[in-house]
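From the methods appendix. Each design record in this collection lists the tokenized structure first, followed by the designed amino acid sequence. Records were kept in a plain field format so they could be parsed without special tools. The example shown here is representative of the layout used throughout.

RECORD:
FOLD TOKENS (757 positions):
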């Protein structure tokens, strides 16, 4: 069966809206023609779901997916807009001052509208509606509907969690939103210590160790805390903020403790019984336990749900991934439930949870309808909105020179490969999956084309002025399974592994004078050879010999014994490194891999010189490299949601300086092959063409001139004091002011003393 024609086209100017104001227009696609038109007003909050038409054609196009409005979000969005117009009627003086401070257009570091709206929404729901305060206008969202945001556990004797979900595109500033809400709660509680509407303790939960390390900036005492970095709190409120406490952890900390554990060891003779909820909460929260009820932030919250049994049976890598996701979600949720039910008198231990995610939807294997939204969503600023506001990079697709529409072969690359399979080119017992060498053969032209675009960008960066940031761009290859990833890695990096050596080989090597950890030793374990540079194990038999040859794609991607430009992400090894579960092994190779992945694109760090990343699935959360310029998808994409997740890994901007004339953020791009999304604004790039979007030269301070740094304090005004009361007023000497009858003033204003006049 042939697939239908591609009914989409690129748009001339994807960026339409000012990032600091509510969107006032959007791109709308015609479902019949695929033509895009600019429509006035803001796009309604919606989500997409599969239909029989989608499954029939096996396409991941929104145009063949069903669409439904997110009713609660649209109602709350309209109410918050009216409430904002009233200057946030009904809030405390502290809240009003914070909101005015954040909305000030003269701020040195202005906040995006999507950040302000997310914060205003949580404040409106908690400080106004949940407190029983009705605004003067009749709200579209009824306060009685707040009960819909309760996530109830299976245990009927346990209290449910109040959850408020904010959908925010990758790169739109979720961490800043968390900092703002912490400031709102802590400053209010500091001013009114008895007001439990505002917790003075926050628990931040996340999926892995890398994110945990980055979220430490939410602790007010951290040297690089976001409250100072983004000027979140007025100076006079800092003492109030510092009275609160923030704990950042990951879901592994919620794993139940063994009944035989004593300290960090386990003894067969010890049997303490299962932990009570009180003991569980006290052990995980530390000093936060005495400050309950607390507020909870779930970062990457699409991992935090209550799994349901699957109706279909899965196998292979897919079954393993689903099992791991379900285990993570279960431990995460049960941990929050136990903390919430750790206080006496059936009082909730968690005042409320704020969930933040770019994709707060149930994923495949969760037991729910794939792509259905979490029912507690209250705010939405997704990928399409972020593109139209310029907050993220713009996807750029290969298009035909004649039609200007996406080139079918490069657009639906995986389907094109599957359609061309010959007898014997499928793996037996793998559900018709193609052999790795076949995938490489069919995708080689697309990969070379994309690599050529990468090299053009790479050469532009290399020609930058000496002293400027020369961090190389990154190409991401997303594969269907580990076999394909390994094959592509060998072809791209030129790195191969030979048979294990014997004890005699080791003896001969040591006799020749090689040290136990020789930096130029080409012998590594098979696991380490595919994972990390630099790490060299002790010399022993059973190691393999790594041979470094030429890349089949670009010389710039070739690996060598002392430098690794292409990185293959071993998912199992990385998962072990990201875990803080004591039962998981975290050897040096795993930790080194984590450090490299976490620092891709960051000058002076282990991942600085990585140029190509080969992975399975969509990379781990915590990947925040902003120098990704090219992505190729070599896997099936069953939904628009999956397309967004993969593309989202390459959408973080490099520069946030608005155009001085238009006020809009300038266009930045990521070239995308093989990811068949639609109804996402994109630019077209004809095959074999160059572009003019040259990288900017970033002005940076020189470390050797740190002693010459000049700092200016952030002040709200100046206080004037007189040493002696010598001010006199000579009224007779003052010049008179004569007013004409028709020029008589109708009002008098007194300006406060601010600065020097």
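DESIGN:
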């Amino acid at each position: 069966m042939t697939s239908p024609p591609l009914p989409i086209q690129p748009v001339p100017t994807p960026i339409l809206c000012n990032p600091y104001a509510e969107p006032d227009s959007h791109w709308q696609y015609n479902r019949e023609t695929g033509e895009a038109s600019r429509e006035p007003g803001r796009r309604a909050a919606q989500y997409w779901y599969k239909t029989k038409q989608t499954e029939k054609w096996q396409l991941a196009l929104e145009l063949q997916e069903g669409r439904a409005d997110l009713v609660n979000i649209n109602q709350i969005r309209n109410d918050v807009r009216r409430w904002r117009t009233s200057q946030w009627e009904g809030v405390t003086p502290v809240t009003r001052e914070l909101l005015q401070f954040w909305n000030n257009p003269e701020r040195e570091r202005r906040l995006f509208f999507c950040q302000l709206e997310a914060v205003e929404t949580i404040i409106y729901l908690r400080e106004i509606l949940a407190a029983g305060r009705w605004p003067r206008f009749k709200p579209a969202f009824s306060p009685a509907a707040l009960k819909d945001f309760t996530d109830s556990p299976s245990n009927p004797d346990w209290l449910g969690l109040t959850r408020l979900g904010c959908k925010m595109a990758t790169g739109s500033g979720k961490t800043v939103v968390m900092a703002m809400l912490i400031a709102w709660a802590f400053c209010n509680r500091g001013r009114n210590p008895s007001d439990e509407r505002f917790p003075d303790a926050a628990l931040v939960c996340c999926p892995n160790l890398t994110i945990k390390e980055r979220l430490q900036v939410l602790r007010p005492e951290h040297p690089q805390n976001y409250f100072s970095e983004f000027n979140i709190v007025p100076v006079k409120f800092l003492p109030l903020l510092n009275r609160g406490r923030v704990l950042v952890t990951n879901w592994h900390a919620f794993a139940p403790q063994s009944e035989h554990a004593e300290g960090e060891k386990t003894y067969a003779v010890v049997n303490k019984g299962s932990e009570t909820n009180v003991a569980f909460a006290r052990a995980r929260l530390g000093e936060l336990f005495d400050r309950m009820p607390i507020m909870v932030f779930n970062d990457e919250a699409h991992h935090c749900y209550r799994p349901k049994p699957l109706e279909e049976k899965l196998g292979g890598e897919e079954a393993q991934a689903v099992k791991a996701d379900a285990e993570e979600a279960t431990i995460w949720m049960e941990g929050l439930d136990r903390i919430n039910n750790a206080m006496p008198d059936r009082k909730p231990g968690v005042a409320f949870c704020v969930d933040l995610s770019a994709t707060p939807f149930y994923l495949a294997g969760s037991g729910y309808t794939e792509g259905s939204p979490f029912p507690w969503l209250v705010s939405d600023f997704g990928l399409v909105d972020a593109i139209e506001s310029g907050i993220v990079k713009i996807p750029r697709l290969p298009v035909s020179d004649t039609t200007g529409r996406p080139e079918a072969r490069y657009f639906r690359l995986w389907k094109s490969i599957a359609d061309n399979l010959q007898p014997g080119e499928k793996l037996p017992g793998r559900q018709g999956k193609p052999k790795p060498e076949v995938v490489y053969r069919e995708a080689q032209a697309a990969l070379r084309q994309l690599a050529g675009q990468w090299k053009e960008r790479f050469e532009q960066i290399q020609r930058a002025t000496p002293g400027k940031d020369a961090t190389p761009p990154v190409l991401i290859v997303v594969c269907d399974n580990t076999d394909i990833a390994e094959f592509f890695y060998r072809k791209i990096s030129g790195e191969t592994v030979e048979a294990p050596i014997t004890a005699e080989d080791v003896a001969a090597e040591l006799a020749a004078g090689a040290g136990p950890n020789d930096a130029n030793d080409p012998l590594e374990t098979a696991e380490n050879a595919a994972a990390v540079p630099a790490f060299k194990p002790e010399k022993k038999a059973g190691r393999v010999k790594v041979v470094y040859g030429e890349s089949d794609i670009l010389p710039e991607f070739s690996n060598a014994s002392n430098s690794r430009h292409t990185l293959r992400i071993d998912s199992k090894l990385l998962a072990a490194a990201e875990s803080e579960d004591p039962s998981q092994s975290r050897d040096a190779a795993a930790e080194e891999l984590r450090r490299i992945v976490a620092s891709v694109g960051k000058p002076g760090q282990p991942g600085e010189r990585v140029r190509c990343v080969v992975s399975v699935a969509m990379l781990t959360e915590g990947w925040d490299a902003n120098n990704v310029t090219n992505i190729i998808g070599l896997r099936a994409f069953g939904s628009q949601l999956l397309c967004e997740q993969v593309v989202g890994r390459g959408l973080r901007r490099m520069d946030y300086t608005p155009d001085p004339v238009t006020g809009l953020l300038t266009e930045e791009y990521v070239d995308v092959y093989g990811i068949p999304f639609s109804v996402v604004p994109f630019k077209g790039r004809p095959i074999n063409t160059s572009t003019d979007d040259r990288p900017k030269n970033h002005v940076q301070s020189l470390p050797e001139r740190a002693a010459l740094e000049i700092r200016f304090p952030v002040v709200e005004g100046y206080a004037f004091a007189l040493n002696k009361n010598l001010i006199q007023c000579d009224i007779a000497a003052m010049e008179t002011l004569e007013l004409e009858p028709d020029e008589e003033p109708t009002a008098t204003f007194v300006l406060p003393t601010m600065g020097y006049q």
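APPENDIX NOTE: The chain is about 30% helix and 15% strand.
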